[in-house]
Design a protein that fits this description.
By secondary structure, the chain is mainly α. The chain is 60% helix and 10% strand. The chain has helices at 5-31, 46-74, 82-110, 113-142, 147-174, 180-192, 227-244, 287-290, and strands at 200-209, 212-221, 250-258.
Length: 298
């Protein structure tokens, strides 16, 4: 209708939103299914496939937009009915703004990478649509038609960047890259609710499955504790984290280590019957001593 490659770019991205949104809805449905024998950790990993699919589509669209904009420089086409095009884009931008803000908020609340990814993508569409409206208005006022492919080139670069970010997030999730924000949150909770028998915690690994998390770690306990008492300490640790965690379920797999003499320096048990060295100070848990596979005193 308008012969504008910039408006065509915006329309192409809107089509991708619909296709990616359909796949995202299916992935959210799968994520909500309970664990089973074939999927003992649940179905949450599908969310990373979803944002990877969306990121790939966006990246391809960005390449097509750049190609189309490049063609326009060598074979320009007369633009027409730009005012109608601007009103169409403005209406789309307003609808996307409402939807994007809602998805970003719900994605953070539910810790869903699919919902958050879709929300962020749609918000990017809003910003690019506003820039596109400004470019079309400038063309309408000045008659400088070369602004149209230039705006398309800028949109293409923005879309490529967003596609790369989604692909990067997808690969990170599928490769179980550590989310340091989650690690810091867990460490903060454990420091605040630390019990005397929890001498140290180390070799922590965090995996995300949808809005649920699986955490492996080693917990050093007094070596003389009976099995039932050690089990109570593990359940207490798991319970404390789940009480304060922002959203989702945190599942622990904890390996218990017996304390050794070097642990006496930072063990806060005042009435320990087997203490061999004086208590010199409590070691605060942080990334540097919680992530490595060794006791703090080793």
């Amino acid at each position: 209708m308008t012969n504008s490659v910039a408006i065509l770019s915006d329309a192409l991205e809107s089509i991708i939103n619909v296709v990616a949104g359909a796949f995202a809805c299916y992935s959210i449905y799968l994520t909500g299914k309970p664990k089973d024998e074939n999927h003992p950790y649940g179905h949450g990993k599908i969310e990373f496939f979803s944002i990877g699919f969306e990121g790939a589509m966006i990246f391809i669209a960005g390449c097509l937009i750049l190609f189309k904009a490049g063609q326009y420089f060598f074979d320009p086409t007369a633009l027409d009915k730009l005012d109608k095009g601007m009103w169409l884009i403005a209406g789309t931008a307003l609808a996307n703004l409402v939807l994007g803000l809602f998805l970003v908020r719900e994605g953070k609340k539910l810790s869903s990478v699919t919902i958050s990814g879709n929300g962020q993508h749609i918000m990017t569409d809003v910003y690019s649509s506003l820039g596109l409206i400004a470019a079309l208005l400038l063309i309408h006022l000045t008659g400088w038609h070369w602004i149209d492919p230039l705006a398309s080139l800028l949109m293409g670069v923005l879309i490529l960047r967003k596609g790369y970010q989604l692909l990067r997030a997808s690969i990170s999730g599928l490769m179980d890259e550590t989310d340091m924000r989650i690690v810091d949150k867990v460490i903060e909770i454990l420091n605040a609710r630390r019990r005397a028998n929890w001498i140290d915690i180390h070799n922590m690994r965090v995996q995300q499955y949808g809005n649920n998390y699986h955490i492996d770690c080693h917990l050093t306990l007094p070596y003389y504790l009976e099995l039932s008492d050690a089990h109570d300490e593990l359940k207490a640790l798991e319970r404390q984290v789940n009480i304060e965690f922002p959203s989702g379920e945190v599942e622990f797999f904890i390996h218990t280590d017996p304390c050794i003499p070097v642990c006496c320096h930072y063990c806060q048990l005042a009435d320990c019957p087997v203490r061999q060295d004086k208590f010199t100070g409590l070691i605060q848990w942080k990334r540097e001593n919680v992530l490595p596979n060794r006791k703090h005193g080793e």
